[in-house]
Amino acid sequence: xxxxxxxxxxxxxxxxxxxxxxxxxxxxxxxxxxxxxxxxxxxxxxxxxxxxxxxxxxxxxxxxxxxxxxxxxxxxxxxxx
Length: 81
Known about the structure:
The radius of gyration is 14 Å and the shape is elongated. The chain has strands at residues 2-5, 8-13, 18-24, 37-38, 41-42, 50-57, 67-79. By secondary structure, it is an all-beta fold. 0% of the residues lie in helices and 52% in strands.
């Protein structure tokens, strides 16, 4: 799936649990592009709402409380495919 937000365009592979930033808009301040990032869960893709990706930080065998990583985009403008 390709999703365009206010600041960037993202490619999502939900079945693989990964996403990457593939392009920046003119309003963007830049950022990492091209590298796949893995996620365990993502929020719904809803126009005019930010898209959020979640993953656990640390080792699965670690007995301490798990911390979560979050990536939140600017609001979704359109779903391209």
